[in-house]
Amino acid sequence: MSDSTTDPKLAALEKSLSALVPAPGRIDRDQLLFRAGQASARRPQRLWPCAMALVSVIAVGLGLALMIRPEPRVIERVVFVSPESQAPASGSTGSTPLPNATAVQNKTESSRELWVSSAGYVQQRDQAIRWGVDALPPSGSIDSTAPALSIESLLGMPKEKLDQPSLFPLQF
Amino acid sequence: MIARLPIWFCFWAVIPGVQEQAPPEEVVRVALRPAAAPVPALKYQFLPEYRNQVSGNAVIHYHRAGQMIGKMPGPEDKLWQWLEMPSKDLPREEGRLFLQRYHNLFRELELASRCDRCDWQFRERIRTDALGLLLPDIQQLREFAHLLRLRAGLEIADGRVADAVRTLRIGFAMAKHANQSPTMIAALVGVAIANQMADLVTDLIQVPGAPNLYWAITDLPQPFIDLRVTLQSERMIVSGLFSPLAEAGIDIRTTPLSSQQLQVVIAGMGQLFDNTHGRETTGLRLALIGMTAKGYPEAKEFLLAQGMAAETVEAMPRLQVVLIFALAEYDRLFDEMIKWQPIPYWQARPGMAKADQGLREEKIKSGELGRIPLAAYLIPAVQKVFFATTRLDRKLAALRSIEAIRLYAAGHDGKLPAALSEITEAPVPMDPVTGKDFDYKMEDGKAVLSAPPPAGEQSRFGNYLKYELTLTK
């Protein structure tokens, strides 16, 4: 079984090799792997945390600004609309009449608007008080051709109907 | 640096808001020269004296002037820029050429100013069709005032003091004539015209050699705009709603109405509230039905408490009962508001504010309790109108004070008084808004005459006054 050789050189080499003691490696494998991993990773970035912090601060700032700033100034502008320009709109409504029930319902729903006075004088007066007389339409824009409302027209009756004494049964 | 950005950003966001809170202060800078009172003291007057008046109705002349004015220049015209300029900066030659075409119109306005009355014939119109009332002639006065303002401005720029006083006299007379129309719009037009003229007086007293106008300003009525008839005529609007019945001798407050007469009442209400302009009143009728059902018990109780016989109340349609209550509420709230008008503003203000608050509450209540909101929508913001007229009086009082300072300077070697109390040449008026003396102090050789906003109000355009006065010999 012995493989011993007769060549003295080889025997000496064998002897010297067998005398060698295994020495522990100077490279720490774990350390090496850690360093390799560390080297493979990019340097940590501060951009995103900074951006996030910035956005957070801006959001807080805007929130504060919204809370403490005064009410936005309301810019009121008076727009004079001539009756002619309104006519097509009402005409289009008239071309597709709503069923009566729907019309009544809509009327009821818009009862809030109903109690906003539409009387010309009252409107103009309140406008003048609120915004000054410069807000009134110039004298030339007053539509003197518009027919004055009569009680008869409001009642849907023929003109001069109310002049008939029979309408007032009480005797004076 | 990056870390500071958010902080700056916050400042940028907040600063505009802060700037909005504090609008720039409006200071009128006036360069004065000492001037003693003219002899005779009323050599210059801003309203025609009785001896210079003629019998006649000024309205006729205003109507003639209205025929002559033609179409006013459009909004882009230079006229509107000129009206914003101080008198001294006006382009004199161009302005004179522009005004040449209005020579005859100015003649009519002057004739109008000398008329001893100005009857606009509105009383009966308000009684019958107040809500449809058109006021084109009153509104035309504003256009006349613009032209007068330009004319007076050019005269001031030329140093033609007597001519400028004459033009201002026409303007002040026109403002008073507007006030003789018994509508609130007309009163406000009068205030606007008089304000324009008062601003020109500020320019006029700075003209070298300008006479002292203390007594001319003092001669103007105080208050300049009288609101008594104006406010009383507002009440006529409500009675105008039921004018067909009134003309037939029916008092809806006492006489039970027939169903046909009730239709007239509904139609009258339609004039006021219904946006359908009378084409149909379905919405109004539905609303009235709802309000009658809801408000009848309260209204009935009110009428019985007022001493109306139970049979009479029962005989009335329910809508009429609710309406009578609404009319009574209107009268109550309206009187609460206008009763303060004869009292000086600074004394009346708390009471008017309370009445105004009552009116606001009524607006809410009328919705909640189903009341017919006559008061809520027909009573105007009287407090604001009262302040507008008092603000004009304040401006005139401030001008009187400035002229009193010129009187003092004329007798004290061209020096400004250290305090208003030093002025003994003429009474220095008090501020009609506060009921106290104007604030007066010396700052860096200049005098500052000011009047604060009404108590409890922040400074905003028009609710305070500040004049910076410098004196040159």
Give a brief description.
The complex is a heterodimer of chains A (172) and B (473). Helix content of chain A is 52%, strand content 0%.
Structural domain count of chain B:
3
Written as H for each helix and E for each strand, in order along the chain, the element string of chain A is: HHHHHHHH
Characterize the main sheet of chain A.
Answer: none
What structural class is derived from the secondary structure elements of chain A?
mainly alpha
Number of helices of chain A: 8
Please report the total strand number of chain B as a whole number.
6
**Morphology of chain B:** elongated
Relative strand content of chain A: under 5%
Secondary structure tally, helices of chain B: 19
- Characterize the biggest β-sheet of chain B: 4 strands, mixed
| Strand order, sheet with most strands of chain B | 1-6-5-4
Structural class of chain B: alpha/beta
* pLDDT averaged residue by residue of chain A: 65
Structure summary, number of beta strands of chain A? 0
- Give start-end ranges of low-pLDDT stretches of chain A: 80-116, 141-151, 158-172
Low-confidence residue ranges of chain B = none
Rg of chain A, nearest Å: 50 Å
Instruction: Quote the average pLDDT of chain B.
Output: 89
Rg of chain B, nearest Å: 27 Å
Instruction: Give the overall shape of chain A, derived from the CA principal axes.
Output: rod-shaped
